[in-house]
Amino acid sequence: MAERDNVFSRQGDAAGQQPGARRLAPATSGIIPTPRRHDIPGFEPKPSAGPAGVAGGAPAPGQVEARQLVVGREVRVEGRIEACDLLVVDGEVASETACRAIRITDAGVFKGACEVAEADIRGRFEGELVVAEKLMLRATGRIEGTVRYAAIEIEPGGVVAGQMDHLIKADAEAPAKAPAKAPAKASAKAKRAAEGD
């Protein structure tokens, strides 16, 4: 038993060890804990530049942290995406989506229908896109399909292949609202009243 204690002791004179040599730490389970941001000395989150967490950083006091979905490179996602504040596409998404904002990176591809307030497209979008506030199409971005937007900015090199429609303010606020009907012809009673004057 005494010999075992010497094997794990912290004394530098264990048998077979040269003076000044480094001792190995005792074996562990092999799991190395990853430090979290709050565990890193000197780390302070940056304040958010936009809606709660959409532009990154910590949410302002009283705001809820953003619900983000990040689809990484070489990842493919299919299906409906809901209740998402920010969708970041770095892989491939085939979906019908309604969220606050979408960001498609240079390597990202989105296929389907998407209704958002803000869009920042550096990659490829194929399908129907409705942007209630601002659409930013970067130089590496390409949109194929139908685009409806309230405001748009296209960098030189950005491509839109398809139909583009500008949303008027009423459409942007209530995109699901049915279009207004054409004025009906005057009724017979109204015509008689006009003739009687």
Descriptive notes:
The structure is a single chain. The protein is built from 3 helices and 8 strands, in the order αββββββββαα. The chain has helices at 2-7, 169-173, 188-195; strands spanning 68-71, 76-78, 81-89, 92-104, 109-121, 124-137, 142-154, 159-166. It is globular, with a radius of gyration of 30 Å. Strands 1, 2, 3, 4, 5, 6, 7 and 8 form an 8-stranded parallel beta sheet that branches. The longest helix has 8 residues, at 188-195. The chain has a domain at 65-174. The termini are far apart. The model is unreliable at 45-58 and 175-187 (pLDDT under 50). It is mainly beta and 197 residues long.
Largest sheet: 8 strands, parallel
**pLDDT < 50 runs, ≥5 residues:** 45-58, 175-187
| Separation of the first and last Cα atoms | 121 Å
Count the beta strands. 8
Number of helices: 3
Whole-angstrom Rg? 30 Å
Order of helices and strands: HEEEEEEEEHH
CA-based shape: globular
Helix content: under 10%
Q: Pairing-aware structural class of the strands and helices? A: mainly beta
Average pLDDT across residues? 73
Which band does the percent of strand residues land in?
Answer: 35-45%
Topology (SSEs and partners):
Blueprint: H1 2-7, E1 68-71, E2 76-78, E3 81-89, E4 92-104, E5 109-121, E6 124-137, E7 142-154, E8 159-166, H2 169-173, H3 188-195
Parallel strand pairs: 1-3, 2-4, 3-4, 4-5, 5-6, 6-7, 7-8
